[in-house]
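Q: Could you write out the predicted structure for this multi-component system? I'm mainly interested in how the pieces pack against one another.
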Amino acid sequence: MATTRPRHSAASTQFLDPAVLGRIGNLELLARTVVDGFLTGLHRSPYLGFSMDFAEHRPYMPGDDIRRIDWKLFARSDRHYIKLFEADTNANFSVLLDLSASMSFGSHSLTKLDYARYLAACLTYFSNKQRDRVGLVTFDHEIVDYVPPSMKHLDTILHTLDRAKAGRPGSLAGPILRITEMLGRKGILVVISDFYEEPDAVLSALGPLRARGHDVIVFHVMDPYELEFPFQEASGFEDLETGEQIPVIPGKLRADYLAMMNAHLAALERSFTDHRIDYRLLDTSKPLDRALFEYLLSRERMSKTR
Amino acid sequence: MSLAFLVPLFLIGFAGVVVPIAVHLTRKQRRNVVHFPSLMFLEKIPFQERRRRRIQHWFLLSLRALALAFVAAAFSRPFLDQSSGAALGSAGPREIVVLLDRSYSMEIEGQIEQARSQAEAILSDLGPLDRASLVTFARGAEVVARSTSDRAHLRAALDTLTVSSGATRFGPALKVAQTILEESTLARGEVYLLSDFQRNGWTGDEGVQLPPGSSLIPIEVGGEDTIDNLMVTDVSLPRQIVAGRERITPTARVVRRGGEATQTVSVSLELDGQEIQTVDIELAPNDAQSVSFQAFTLSRPHTTGTVRLDDEALSADNSHHFVLSPGSSLSVLIVDGAAGSTDPSLYLRGALGISDDGRFDVRSRRSSTVRPVDLEGAAAVFINDVQLDGGSAERIRTFAEEGGGVLVALGQDSGWPASAADMLPGTPGPMQDRLQGRGGRLGYLDYEHPVFEVFSGPRSGDFTGARFYRARGFAPSDSAMVLARFDDGSIALAELRLGRGRILVWTTTLDSFWNDLALQPVYLPFVHRLAEYLGGRAEALPWFVAGQVVDVANPEALETAGLVSSEAAGLVEGLDQVALSPMGGNLALPAVDGPRYLPLEEHGFYTVRQPGTDPDRPFVIAVNVDLEESNLGRVEPDELALQIEAPAIVDDGSPRLTQAVELQKEDQERRQSLWRWLLGAALALFALETVISNWVSRRATGAAGVVAG
């Protein structure tokens, strides 16, 4: 049964502009603002249906899952109604946030890390409101902070996100392996990173998570300058993680760079798809609600397959 | 002239020239640094790498290096050291000045010919770009050829060289050389001084200083300075009146310098070209004798005379010329009181009557009235203690305005009519007694005035012995000149110019009644000088010295030169005259307004007359050589050269010399200020470099791929 694709008003889209969000210092307030505003503008359907507690009935609409028709009420009223339940999944929801130095890059008011933090805060808040147990792992080339999944850890997670800073070189393999060992219960894992590693290395790092039965959603956070490489002036380009510097005349390298970047993105998407990992590329200049849509779509898909 | 630096330490800055090169070769490309998340893609892109080990823009690099070099040079404060120009050797064209001595001592042993040969040798060595000047000199300097490279002209000028009658004076010639070198544009100057280097020609305070870069090359002609030289140094011509005619007894002084044995010298006297007498004397080496000739009667004006010795090496000083004319007595009128037992003019008349040559013709008039006939022929009038009437005073006024001289001696009876009060140099007052002590004295005398000039020398007349017990007070007018004062400041002698004549007032008597001046030895010459001054008599000079000048348009100068009568000499005032020089040359003296100077450059007799006339006794001026030249003692040529060359800077380590050298360098550097030009050029180069490098940079942007440092 197909779901109704969420829509949002132009006003809400404008409100979720990352640049506007950047002016809100408190992450909880930010998450609440994003999620509540987002929910207000959404169709209710995706929000409901993940819980066992009855909420209400609504008339059957074509496309609704016929398994959710309340046949007893049909017997009494001879009409088809859909039985809706309160959302209460009690699933483990963890965000794996990359704090490597490359995440500190930003070509406008928000860095990739800022964007990732907002995203993580919103998703965590969102999940917590759905009564999921929320957790957080931040890592670079090792685990920086670990907040175990819990219904009561929202504040801790938001606090941890608030003070998260990128600064050290990062790698996926080591930290993810540790996380795999730490997370015993299956759950939803949201990995937020810029994935500056070879696609094979990324997949080999995330593969064990999927193998353990976690639902893995990957958000690939990229700055528009990384995607478009609009630099003009000949400059020295310094690697944020290694400090290596090379002189570059962008006009001469743009085509090659974009070709390699696109190939990299395509390879990542193909690899993740092959391993049934949801992959979403996020442009930090784009509104945040798109990421939330992607998440909800993924949740819905998970629920259908579950 | 060489390039020097005031602060050479800054030349270290020239090392800065390598800075642009080093920067160019070692500097990494300094551009904007972009912090990028990862270089994993960029590093995979193959790119061209070009090391900056090759200099791409030689022109820019040269500009930068040159600008830095200019800055370093400017801070070093460079200057062209002109003081060391003399040490440059033989490079560059020369400005040559040949100074040739033609004083009369150069006639000795053909020294003038030696000098001519030396000068020719110098001129023959002239380079193609050299310029030369020829200057002859004796007492004065004459530029014969000035700063020319025309050798023919120089040689022709050299051929006209003759010995003059002047004495040696190095100062004017060296001044001329200094001027020529200072005006020259050539870097090097050489002054050749060809002379016999007589010591009398150089005093050391001539103030000559050749410009830097010039040198003086003294060339001494002649050999020894101890030749045997005879000379007539002086001739005295005392006059005596014998039987109403003047008789002259010449006495010549003959001096011998040098020599080794006693020598017999013939001394002859010539009058009007005829030898009158010859006297032989024995002269030991470095000896002198006076030779007296027989007296002769002087009856004709402008009589020429010569005392002559035998010719020897230096002949110019062997003859002594003079001109004599019969003297004329000065007519003096003495007017004194008509009555009284005493004679107030006793001493005055007596003093004027005492002279061997009868120079004063004294007449007396004892009356308070002066008649016109009394003043006829009189040159001087003494109004001695008398009360004149108004008519007499007016006649005296007329007499004075026409050129006569009057002395008014104030005494007890003297007075002056009020109508003629403006004739006197002041107003007579009452009698003033100086009875305390030993009376008053003369406290001030104007020794520059002709009356007292002869008393200015030591032992030339003592006025301090005279005592003055009484005098008339005298209030001088504004136009009066005070010639003598008593020791209390009151006036003793005052003068007033009246027309062409003069009136003097003596405020005390000329006898011994109010003072004892008449009893003093100085009284007689004082009265003589008074009478001569009042009568306008000028002492005629029997001879001049070569180098002097006579203004033939000035009657007083002519009278001094011995002119007795213009009419007798054939000279008419306002017409052209001509002078015949001793060597036979003619000097035209055209009639012009103002002075007509006759330069007396040759020794012998100059004859002055109207052109086309042949008077019986023409006006003759005798000229003798300057005897300083006869002293053949020599100055060391190198010593002279050292005094006038620009001082060479020799660093002997003394602080004052070091300081002087530094000051000289600083002065040169400040005057030249080359650092301003260098700094300006450096700024211009920097500006040009900026423009060009920006242009090159704009062109280069985007042209290359990746540039790695």
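A: Regarding packing and overall arrangement: Residues 48-52, 85-89, 702-709 of chain B have pLDDT under 50 and may be disordered.
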